[in-house]
Structures are given as C-alpha cells and as structure tokens.
C-alpha cells in the first residue's frame, strides 16, 4: 500500500520524505489556507519534494470552469493530480480531463455508487472519507471494502485513496482490505512508527550498555 501525506506544510512533507516512505501528497483548501506562502508557490514546492502524485483541489463548481482551473493546476508540475469533488459537474469535468491525460482525484466520496461513477468517468483516484463516516456512526471501513471489491470485479485502473484518516488503526485496516493508498496526516504518520514497548526496549538496551561500558 502506498502512503501519501495529507498536508500542505513543507516542513512536514520534507520530514516524511526523509524517512523514505512518502509516495505522494494530498492537499485541500483548508490545509493550504494555513500556509503563509501563495497557493501556487506552495504547490510547486510540494511537487519538488516528492516524485509521486500531488493532489491540488479545484474550487470551481461548473464543469467548464473546473476544466479550465484543472488545466491551470496541471501546468504547475508534471506530478499534479487535480482534486475534484464528486457530483454531476465534477463527473463531466473528469471525463474531459481524462481525455486530455490530466489525472483526477475525485474527492468527498461517501458511497460505493459515487466511487463507481468516478471510476467510469476516468478518475485516476477516488478518495472515500472514512473518518467523517465514522463521525456519524457509519462504518467507513465497510465502504472501503465495498469499493475495493467492486474495482477488483471490473478491473478498474482507478486507485482507492483512503482519506479522512484519524488514527493508525485506520491505516492498518485499509492495508488489510487491499486499498491502494492511505493519505495520512502528519500526526498519525508519526504514531505509526511509535510503540511503547519499542521505547522501553531501547531504554533497557541503553541501560545495559552503560553497565557494560563501566
């Protein structure tokens, strides 16, 4: 499973890239609004930090306007994937962009039907938001299981990005279900590498080593 970082912060992205585990980055308007540099400059710098896909979101609502905005975003760097919310206008735009060879990450997916339509329209990625489903007492991982099964049934090339990840268990469950990608916030990414028994083991080894040296 590939791991994307869900962040627009250059320091976070640079740090995780240094671990050797970063396969791509996803951003959204909320994440980008927190950064001090201009949107385009920030996206360009992010694209330079990873050779993998970098999702930059369109904010237009009509298909023709989405296509124009997506073309502009795609010109920033070769590894841009334009992020488009699912909907009728988004599907129309995705069909046109797919024909032009522009990668689309269809976002705000909350049902298998939405994911199926996105794949048929030519989206390279679909992003089901599991955490937000969990927030309203629905089973986010059950949705991932359904989408993965449907895509396998019909051999869609569209990849499933598990989004709205809230904790490490989400990442592990996504991997167990065969999702292609999890996009993970920096805080959750750091938790994946930590375990209290690892910390205790290191402390004990160091304590024993100090005894050997004396």
Describe this structure in words.
It is a single chain. The chain is an alpha/beta fold. 54% of the residues lie in helices and 17% in strands. An eight-stranded parallel barrel has the order 1-2-3-4-5-6-7-8, surrounded by seven helices.
List the helices and strands and how they pair.
Elements: E1 2-6, H1 10-19, E2 24-26, H2 29-33, H3 39-49, E3 54-57, H4 63-74, E4 80-85, H5 88-99, E5 104-109, H6 112-121, E6 125-128, H7 130-135, H8 140-154, E7 159-162, H9 168-176, E8 181-184, H10 186-192, H11 196-213
Parallel strand pairs: 1-2, 1-8, 2-3, 3-4, 4-5, 5-6, 6-7, 7-8
Helix pairs in contact: 1-3, 4-5, 6-8
Briefly, what is this?
The chain has 214 residues and is α/β, with parallel strands linked by helices.
Which radius of gyration do the C-alpha atoms yield?
A: 19 Å
Beta-strand portion reads 15-25%
CATH topology: TIM Barrel
Structural class: alpha/beta
Give the helix proportion (percent range). Answer: 40-55%
> How many domains is the backbone divided into?
1
Low-pLDDT segments: none
CATH superfamily: Aldolase class I
Q: What overall form do the CA principal axes indicate?
A: globular
- Topology pattern, helix = H, strand = E: EHEHHEHEHEHEHHEHEHH
Alpha carbon gap, first and last residue: 46 Å
Mean pLDDT: 96
Q: CATH class, please?
A: Alpha Beta
Major β-sheet strand ordering: 1-2-3-4-5-6-7-8
The total beta strand count reads 8
Number of helical regions? 11
Key attributes of the depicted protein:
214 residues; eight-stranded parallel barrel; 54% helix; TIM Barrel; 8 strands; 11 helices; single chain
